[in-house]
Amino acid sequence: MASLREIQRSFAAALRDPAVTCAVLPPANLGVYRNNGAITFREALGQTFPVLRRRVGDDYFRQLSTHYRERFPSRSGDLHWAGRDFAAFLDDYLAGSEYQWLADLARVEWACAESLVAAERVSLGVDSLAGYSSVALERLAFGLQPSLRTLSSSFPVFSVWLTNQVDNAPPVDQSQGSEQGMIRIRHDSVEVRKLDRAAFSFICALAQGATLGEAMTAAALDARALTNVLAFLFAEGLVCSLTLKSA
Question: What is the pLDDT, as a whole number, of residue 127?
């Protein structure tokens, strides 16, 4: 007699593949579960990637969802995580086509999904820098909000996402070229912002553990630009902690 685990595996495999038989249900009954499973998966994916779904249309999104599920079936009862590999799937599935930019759009939307379930910590004010000498400032490491995600793309995917926050949005001209930006949660809402390359490089360096001085060098910022990006970081509530690293 098959064990419960074997029966569960048989049922799960039959849900994904019509050619697989199930130990406990006849094919006619399985069809109902199989259809419901596909619809539930697709709707969960559509909630995570609403802009991508809007841009490609429901019919093509259904095709993408079907092929994606075949390669990356959900392995969790929480379908929030079903889209974890969607961008990587699109990289491969759309490689060499005029739609390959959709993979980076998926990365923006997946960053939104990750940010939504991240903690939001109490932020520091810019006055927290006042107790450090100019020499010590260069050795400060910044702890940033856990929800912060940064992304650089060869395509204008941030413009696509921002434009498509309303129905019937016009297409974005792909000749606008590369963009970079950040995604974060703020007061239970996701914020998506485009950044200029210098600010993006500086924030990425800080997020990777660089000190203020190291990040300033990495982003090639002068004193005025540094002042502006620091003002932005604190005004946006992105700084949660400061740690003085040893010389």
Answer: 95
Give φ, ψ of 114 to 5 degrees.
-65, -40
Res 1 pLDDT > 70? no
Query: Positive or negative CA dihedral for 129, 222, 233, 145?
Result: negative
Angle between helices 4-16 and 27-48 (to 10 degrees): 70
CB atoms within 10 A of CB 149: 23
Provide the pLDDT confidence category of residue 116 given band limits of 50, 70 and 90.
Answer: very high
| 211 phi, psi to nearest 5 deg | -75, 170
Q: How confident is the model over 180-187, as a mean pLDDT?
A: 95
How much is the CA Rg of the chain, to the nearest whole Å? 23
- Could you tell me the CA-to-CA distances from 48 to 80, 86, 128, 147, 171 in Å, in that order? 8, 10, 37, 16, 20
Amino acid at 13: A
- State pLDDT tens for residues 6-64: 767 777 777 667 667 776 666 666 767 677 778 889 999 999 999 999 999 999 999 99
The alpha helices in the chain, defined as continuous H runs, are 4-16, 27-48, 50-56, 58-71, 86-93, 102-116, 134-137, 157-163, 197-207, 212-218, 223-235
Which strand ranges, in their side-by-side order, compose the sheet holding 189-195? 149-153, 179-186, 189-195
**What pairs with residue 194 in β-bridges?**
181
185 pairs with which residues across the strands?
A: 190
Of residues 108 and 247, more confidently modeled: 108
C-alpha to C-alpha distance for 49 and 52, rounded to whole angstroms: 5
Backbone angles phi, psi at 173, to 5 degrees: -65, 115
